[in-house]
Amino acid sequence: MTNPITQNAHLTKQHPTSSSPVSSQQDIYARVTAKILDDLEQGNLSWRKPWNSAHLAGQVMRPLRWNDIPYTGINTLLLWNVASERGFTSPYWMTFKQANQMKANICKGEKGTQIVFADTFTKAEEDANGDIKSNRIPFLKCYTVFNAAQIDGLSDGFYKTLEPVVINQQTRNPKLEQFFAQTKAEIYIASKAYYAQSTDSIQMPPFESFETAVRYYGVLAHELTHWTKHPKRLDRDLGRKTYGDEGYAKEELVAELGACFLAADLGFEPVPESHHAAYVQSWLQVLKNDKRFIFSAASQAQKAVDYIYHLQGPSG
């Protein structure tokens, strides 16, 4: 199975072709976080909205650039959110300039959606000893994109409505079984689902105990994202000390996003776990305390998904 996220990954590093006036980084973090906090306070999970939208149900996938390269990280969340709120069924997004190059026009009165471009620049600085050292400084830049539904004159392929993904609700799916097996993660049958770092193993209730197959795969995707944090894999340490503390909440948010990214790529619904209501409260507190964490969480989840795809091998 080819990883749709890292395929042609070198192309995703390009600078945006059309940018809005540069906002301060603090404004960008605050704007995005405020929107997600507002959703959470209403009991909505921004990253799950596509699966709850009637016009998107069963066909959720990553938002795509004009050249079929998927958006990643925080931009996936931003574009999913707008698509579900505005009823856009096309997965394609592009800048004004890109549309213009294809001899297409933004429809009169349409407003674009701001997303972000993250990169670093090199700055030479003098240290305490008088030596000149180069430091890599991260930065964010906003730019504006439009959904294909807001553009006239594109080729028919940009307006396609995706066919619903059909997964047998009661039986194991061979494609998904192979995908998860390829990771070589140790998965054992237990009374509840969890990842145990001490034994580096995933515990899952029996397949037959889940109401549907997609519920099983949704939970497994969540636990597999946790599995990537092990020191011999991505070595992801978000500061958890005890069960339920802020570090625990942060890791749960990463696993939640990772499960949603995997579900969109593989074609199933990331059914929420029964204790999501409790998680929402902890995520609210985390995001209020750290206005940048949703960006970090989306980035960490993306790295986890990329790692899982890497394990699929060259013929993946």
UniProtKB/TrEMBL annotation:
InterPro entries found in the cross-reference section: Antirestriction_ArdC, ArdC_N, MPTase-PolyVal
All residue ranges annotated as the N-terminal domain in the record: 26-146
Domain Polyvalent protein metallopeptidase: 175-300
Cited Pfam families: ArdcN, MPTase-PolyVal
GO MF, any single term: single-stranded DNA binding
Disordered, as annotated region: 1-25
Name of this chain's protein: DUF1738 domain-containing protein
Species per Swiss-Prot/TrEMBL record: Spirosoma foliorum
